[in-house]
Design a protein that fits this description.
3-stranded mixed beta sheet, alpha/beta, two-stranded antiparallel sheet, single chain, 107 residues
Length: 107
């Protein structure tokens, strides 16, 4: 699952969509991603999953650097190049380092 920062937390206990500056037009979409994440958390232990969450600014034109940072379920940084997000996803698929959790990636 790749929900963008919509299902991440700004800080512990404060979801991105609960920020007063969050656009109301995107709130329902964000709540849907949060509900999907809740379903994953409630899934049987035999189901291995990871949710990779990029920042809101997913730069489709920036050249990839091949480098990225990984953090927990909180907003990690303001942006990431689309090419670097692809590297992060492929790295997690080929060498799984996270199980049954949401991670954030950023440059």
């Amino acid at each position: 699952m790749l929900p963008a920062a919509l299902s991440a937390a700004l800080r512990p206990g404060i979801a991105v969509h609960d920020d007063p500056a969050f656009p109301e037009a995107h709130r329902t979409f964000s709540l849907g991603h949060t509900a999907a994440l809740d379903l994953l958390h409630a899934s049987p232990a035999a189901l291995d999953w990871v949710v990779v969450t990029p920042p809101m600014d997913l730069d489709r034109t920036a050249p990839g650097t091949g480098h990225y940072r990984v953090g927990g379920p909180h907003v990690l940084g303001p942006r990431i190049a689309q090419a670097d997000l692809a590297v992060a996803i492929v790295d997690e698929l080929t060498t799984p380092a996270h199980h049954r959790e949401q991670i954030s990636v950023a440059e």
